[in-house]
Amino acid sequence: MKKILFLLCAAVCAFAACDPIHEDISNGGHITLDELKAKSSVVVDKAASGQFGNVVTCQTSAPVNAKWTIAGKDLIGNYAWKKMKLGEHVVVLTAICPDGTELVASYPISCQEITNALEKFYIYGDPAKTDEAPFVPGAWDAAAMRFSSTEGAHLPTIPDDVYFGLKTLIFDVSDVTDDFDLKVMNGWWSNTYYDHVKWVSGLNELQITETMAKECAKGNGGEGRDLDLMLYSGSMTLNSVYYEE
């Protein structure tokens, strides 16, 4: 009986958190394609994504190093989700077994129209406000994307009910370069919430955690440290930030 250690990674809005899981393999470190499919799944969830595409959830518990690909773009880790445009798509899982054998499984999916659209609530970039224009933050400029009406360069302070409602913020960005690398922290540099985040042009989501709420909110027990996003490298244009209900 050979014991194999692998990582099952969870990526939320392109962010990954890894926990070690042990698996026993009795056949020399190889699984079959049928076994891989039995331990893998692809789900299209229209209700979770509002009116801007479908959320596709991919996961596998098989003892392999797995890489999911949707529309030619790789997803990080064994569990990932991504907004998809309407239409027909193919999700591909490429897996390397512990003995080096490569397996490839395809999952055709259909992303259909969503009937119950969610309402958007803008934090920045409301089309009705002419003073909230798209901007390009510079690398290592901690003020550029600090959500603070007093210490930020562009973005306003996020209301406490957004923090303590644990909202998911949606960032509408464009012109994202290949070397894009983002850090999510607070304005005091005392805590990093997500590190080395990779975004793509379009919609990217950022989930607010309880820790972020307690540290960044101004009231209700918050420490008032402001949510802050900073580019390590690369560039992009930030068009808007909003959440949906």
Structural write-up:
This protein starts with a strand and ends with a strand. The chain is built from three helices and 17 strands. Strand 13 and strand 14 form a beta hairpin. It is mainly β. It has a four-stranded antiparallel β-sheet.
Distance between the termini: 50 Å
Q: What is the helix/strand order?
A: EEHEEEEEEEEEHEEEEHEE
* Main structural class: mainly beta
Strand content: over 45%
What profile does the largest beta sheet have?
Answer: 4 strands, antiparallel
Query: What Rg is obtained from the alpha carbons, in whole angstroms?
Result: 20 Å
Number of helices: 3
- Mean pLDDT level: 79
User: How many beta-strand segments?
Assistant: 17
Query: Which stretches of 5+ consecutive residues score pLDDT under 50?
Result: 1-26
Q: What is the helix fraction of residues, given as a range?
A: under 10%
Helices, strands, pairings?
Elements: E1 2-11, E2 16-25, H1 33-38, E3 40-45, E4 54-60, E5 65-70, E6 73-75, E7 79-84, E8 87-96, E9 102-111, E10 120-124, E11 145-146, H2 160-164, E12 168-174, E13 181-186, E14 192-197, E15 202-207, H3 210-216, E16 227-233, E17 237-244
Antiparallel strand pairs: 1-2, 3-4, 4-7, 5-6, 5-8, 8-9, 10-17, 11-16, 12-15, 12-17, 13-14, 13-16
Describe, in short, the structure shown.
The chain has 3 helices and 17 strands.
From the structure above, extract its key features.
245 residues; mainly beta; 4-stranded antiparallel sheet; 47% strand; disordered N terminus
